[in-house]
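Researcher: Structure prediction, please.
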Amino acid sequence: MNELPEDPKLISFLHQHRSIAQPEIPELEDRLMSEIDLLPIEKQRRIYHSWQRYIIGGIGLIVTGAAGVAIFQIINPPEPSIAELNQLNLFLEAHAPNLANHSELDSTNQEDLVDLDPDLF
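Model: Predicted structure follows.
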């Protein structure tokens, strides 16, 4: 073992400022535990708060999921089906002359109207 050099000043300082241990009190632990047992504990309130956290957390997850789905639908809208494109073509063919009369389109240039191609999407 390493032996520390003896310093008389250090040794005398440590002897003078030595901490004094408190006298031992018999059955101190038992007295403290009995006093702790006498304290009122609100078990019902703790249970309520734990359930309240789970309910709020569940609602938060549902709201977060719904917001995520809504944002995903906005960013990536669903592509129209062939049936929807055909329906739109029929609507445009039926109403194109009316649209041309009420807008700046010339009714003689109906060939310029675009036919929606299903492969376009």
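Model: The radius of gyration is 43 Å.
Researcher: Thanks, that helps.
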